[in-house]
Q: What sequence folds into this?
């Protein structure tokens, strides 16, 4: 039975050769021009980096290694991580081998718990998770190898070891964060032989007599794993990692980006917004009530969380997948019904509001459709995970798979330190004369 490391070791020479030839033949050609508005506008649409784990097509959404997300929604997180890294779905043996790799590495050092218990009681769960990841940096095998001296060709091996160590520990640490922060009892232990998603569900301590919560967790961890290379978390992880900072530094930096309300924290904001809406109207709102509430939010200078996207121009397939899960498992739940009703109303409201904005000389809202964060919270809430400031931690555990696989592949290719050229406003003004 080949380990993930052996599979990668067999593939990496070919990957390197391919990139070397591509650069030799086409290295001088242009793949993107940059407009002034893009330089001021978050580099939106600028093609300036490589990511082979997945792509996001504006009209289709996430495609992992050539496979549209909704066609691989049945895959478990272990299979997704393997797919991200190698481009192949593992067979049963390879999947079991990866699960055993996690079993060997899931023990969390005691000092992590000491640090978490020492944090202020009102710390945000994302701050707790990021701190725990960072404090484990002393475990980095990459740093040990680097300090002893290794060749560039070897970088990916200790990076993969760090990645496996961190992925194995993350569900334990993340569920521990939940239990400590919300006083649910002491952290629970990893169960050897149980898969990554079900282990996480189990260690949260949420009663799950039918196993449907574990099913949701696997889906959730699948859906949030990766979203190509330019999103804030992946891009930050990439930039920090490009300085040869190890995976603990790089992933923790990426997660700090995920903790922003325009990125991963939107899922916490979404459920807050839905509950506020239901509170105001005493349950599932009528369409007219919902429309008024949405306009009130917008006119108050706030964004509608869970709607809009920097790349997507259609309903996010991740949202569609969660909606389908809800329709199958909790169709009559009032929070879920509200989320579904929001989908009927908010895109129209955003379109109208966007037209008003354009008339007032402002930028249009480029995408009025829901993104991944619009629906997942209602499902978690239904199964008893009601502490919505925790939701971005779930996103983080999943997104770590994408960040880690991107980082390992970049180590294998010896990707250069990130250093785009910035220009000053004075420079832009001179160029335009
Ligand atoms: N509600 C209100 N206004 C919006 C929304 C929204 N949902 N989406 C975009 N806009 C505004 C945006 O704030 C900007 O206004 P201004 O020029 O006054 O700053 C204008 O529309 C143009 O922005 P876009 O080009 O449409 O969007 P951009 O690519 O800059 O940003 C998001 C993308 C996702 C940050 C933005 O749509 C947003 O803030 N959405 C709500 C927060 C959210 O759901 N984030 C989660 C993203 C997914 N994730 O998981 O990370
Ligand atoms: C993500 O999953 O990272 C978000 O949808 C944001 C993005 O792709 O920019």
A:
């Amino acid at each position: 039975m080949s380990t993930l490391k052996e599979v990668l070791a067999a593939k990496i020479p070919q990957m390197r050769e391919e990139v070397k030839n591509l650069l030799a033949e086409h290295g001088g050609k242009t793949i993107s021009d940059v407009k002034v508005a893009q330089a001021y506008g978050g580099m939106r649409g600028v093609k300036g980096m490589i990511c082979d784990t997945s792509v996001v097509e504006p009209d289709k959404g996430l495609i992992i290694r050539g496979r549209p997300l909704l066609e691989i929604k049945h895959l478990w997180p272990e299979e997704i991580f393997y797919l991200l890294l190698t481009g192949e779905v593992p067979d049963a043996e390879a999947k079991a081998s990866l699960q055993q790799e996690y079993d060997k590495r899931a023990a969390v050092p005691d000092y992590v718990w000491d640090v978490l218990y020492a944090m202020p009681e009102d710390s945000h769960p994302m701050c707790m998770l990021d701190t725990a990841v960072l404090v484990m940096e002393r475990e980095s095998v990459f740093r040990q190898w680097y300090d002893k001296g290794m060749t560039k060709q070897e970088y990916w091996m200790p990076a993969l070891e760090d990645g496996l160590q961190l992925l194995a520990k993350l569900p334990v640490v993340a569920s521990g964060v939940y239990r400590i922060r919300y006083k649910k009892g002491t952290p629970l232990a990893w169960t050897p032989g149980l898969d990554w998603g079900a282990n996480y569900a189990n260690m949260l301590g949420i009663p799950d007599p039918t196993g449907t919560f574990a099913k949701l967790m696997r889906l959730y961890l699948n859906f949030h794993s990766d979203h190509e290379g330019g999103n804030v978390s992946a891009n930050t992880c990439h930039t920090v990692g490009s300085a040869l900072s190890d995976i603990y530094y790089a992933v923790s930096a990426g997660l700090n980006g995920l903790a922003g309300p325009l990125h991963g924290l939107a899922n916490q904001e979404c459920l807050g917004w839905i509950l506020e809406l239901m509170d105001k109207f005493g349950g599932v709102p009528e369409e007219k009530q919902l429309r008024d509430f949405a306009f009130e939010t917008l006119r108050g200078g706030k964004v509608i969380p869970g709607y809009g996207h920097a790349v997507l121009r259609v309903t996010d397939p991740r949202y569609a997948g969660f909606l389908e899960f809800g329709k199958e498992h909790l169709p009559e739940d009032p929070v879920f019904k509200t989320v579904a009703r929001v989908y009927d109303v908010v895109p129209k409201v955003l379109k109208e509001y966007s037209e008003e904005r354009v008339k007032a000389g402002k930028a249009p809202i480029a995408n009025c459709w829901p993104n991944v964060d619009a629906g997942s919270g209602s499902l978690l809430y239904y199964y008893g995970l009601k502490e919505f400031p925790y939701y971005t931690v779930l996103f983080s555990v999943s997104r770590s798979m994408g960040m880690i696989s991107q980082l390992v592949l970049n180590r294998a290719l010896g990707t250069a330190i990130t250093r785009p050229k910035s220009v000053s406003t004075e420079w832009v003004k001179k160029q335009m004369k």
